[in-house]
Amino acid sequence: MKTIEEQILELKKQHGAVILAHNYQLDEVQAIADFTGDSLELSRKAANLSEDVVVFCGVHFMAETAAILSPDKTILIPDPNAGCPMADMVTAEQLRAVKAEHPGAKVVCYVNSSAEVKAESDICCTSSNAVKVCESLGNEQIIFVPDRNLGSFVAEKLNRKIVLYNGFCPTHERIRDVDVIAMKQKYPGAVVMAHPECSKPVRDLADELLSTGQMCHYAQASEKTEFIVATELGINYRLRNENPGKKFYPANPDRAVCPNMKKITLEKVLWSLQGMKERVTVPPDIAERAVGCIQRMLEI
């Protein structure tokens, strides 16, 4: 009897497929993936892959972004119900209403948004390049959607006013400043790495504000051996694997779990490859407008 992992590898070879996994995925899903990374890393990878089939282990907007960038490829998501609450907080109609209140403003949309929202935006960003993207717009007025926390982080870094949409990541909101303070007291020598999706009280306690990909690079390069990690728990699998001599302490090990990121299992990856489903597509009229928004980000 072949293991699930062996069956996945066979089907992957048979279909000429590649498996991408976000840093928040289950440990075993990250282990079977060809590439793991944050949104920017996976967006770039999906755009440059030679494989015709991409199994995207993440949430729906990520697979949607890959489908926009590679319309001729088959983009599969093992669980189509793996959504993003933050992305669902803003619709194209709601964004149009905000744009009407600020005529002439440039819209920067976080990659954690739907294709329809991207189609209404001027440029996309991720947590790792949001500051650079907004900086590229010069003195233009900026509307930032949907994450108020990442947007306020950018405003602080650039020392400028930004119109912030009132969206947020429920998982990062569950990480509290008291959690970080307690961990700092327990591990006084540890570096606090926090995701910019965290609330301002948590961000103010951090030594480093980093995307998940940046956390991985920072931990590898740092001479420090202890880290408090204020983001979704899934990142700790990669951090520990890549840094066996270092210790990583989740800021909130009980509550910082994204249920949507945990919906994809090895069984679902197998079923996805067996039935070549669920395929993610974007209507051509929306994709045509959204692709420019994404490409402008990738060019920066």
TrEMBL record:
Q: Which residues cross the membrane?
A: none
Q: What is this protein called?
A: Quinolinate synthase
The gene is nadA
Annotated keywords: 4Fe-4S, Cytoplasm, Iron, Iron-sulfur, Metal-binding, Pyridine nucleotide biosynthesis, Transferase
Described function: Catalyzes the condensation of iminoaspartate with dihydroxyacetone phosphate to form quinolinate.
Q: Fetch the InterPro entries from UniProt.
A: NadA, NadA_sf, Quinolinate_synth_type2
- Provide the family line: Belongs to the quinolinate synthase family. Type 2 subfamily.
What NCBIfam families is this protein classified in? Answer: nadA, PRK09375.1-2, PRK09375.1-4
UniProt-annotated binding residues for iminosuccinate:
H22, S39, Y110, V111, N112, S127, H195, P196, E197, T212
Q: Which GO terms describe its cellular component?
A: cytosol
EC no. given is: 2.5.1.72
Q: Where in the cell is it found?
A: Cytoplasm
Cite the cofactor comment.
Binds 1 [4Fe-4S] cluster per subunit.
Q: Where does [4Fe-4S] cluster bind?
A: C84, C169, C258
In which pathway is this protein known to take part?
Cofactor biosynthesis; NAD(+) biosynthesis; quinolinate from iminoaspartate: step 1/1
Q: Which GO terms describe its biological process?
A: 'de novo' NAD+ biosynthetic process from L-aspartate
Pfam families membership: NadA (PF02445)
Cofactor(s) needed: [4Fe-4S] cluster
The record's catalysed reaction(s) read: iminosuccinate + dihydroxyacetone phosphate = quinolinate + phosphate + 2 H2O + H(+)
> Which top EC class is given?
transferase
